[in-house]
């Protein structure tokens, strides 16, 4: 069994004949590797002119916060730009530091050549895994849920998200002579195209290592383009926090940004919708950046 503090990866195997295995204890802040046998889901294998048009994805939901992570379990190989063969692909998933359980299910689907959907969800009960480790840090001022917002993830949801801290100090090659730490966030959201006039934004908080709020903002997501499923894509990509700076003879210390937290909202036709997820992304420490 993996002990608390171990860096070993836990492997979750979903084998043929509806068997499952787990090789250790899942820890907060670690990663799990998902290995899935495609023959467990073989209903949707659409193809057209030699091109394979199907996929299998894993969906992991982290409780109690409700964060969702998706990823393909199929590796595509192409010839002359056409996908002709597929092979199983392992999926590595980071476990948030506030997780207590992971809920997981699998979706085999095809959109072209006729819509097809099939599920591996243990007959709707899904697969559940406990998460161990040190108790989660309690934030002093988490992003609150806006009054009147309607939870409708089929109206608004996050497609992808990343938060990155970088040292952007310019300098010659060789030993660093300064520091300029910047934290950037990238969020892309899908919304149902209910009407032409609409607004999409996030309420954002940034916390330091002591779980103290160091930045709060509301950031609009500009329109990026149309999307499948009668939807539109809105996105934000920019700096959200400037940390410590240092030059020879001058230092301006600022709190060490550790956690980015936000809620997503979509206003249209007098209604306010949300996916109801408190999204959260962890950052590396300043000393490591």
Short description:
This protein is an all-beta fold and 289 residues long. It has no helices and 25 strands.
CATH topology of the largest domain: Immunoglobulin-like
Number of helices: 0
Q: Detail the poorly predicted runs.
A: 1-7
Mean pLDDT equals 91
Structural class: mainly beta
Task: Kindly describe this structure.
This protein has no helices and 25 strands. It starts with 9 loop residues before the first strand and ends in a 7-residue tail after the last strand. It has strands at 10-15, 19-22, 26-27, 31-36, 47-48, 51-52, 54-63, 67-72, 74-79, 82-88, 91-94, 101-110, 116-120, 127-132, 150-151, 156-167, 179-192, 199-208, 213-220, 223-227, 231-247, 250-252, 257-268, 271-274, 279-282. The chain has two domains: 10-132, Immunoglobulin-like (Sandwich), CATH 2.60.40; 150-282, Carbohydrate binding type-21 domain (Immunoglobulin-like, Sandwich). With 289 residues, it is mostly beta strands. It is globular.
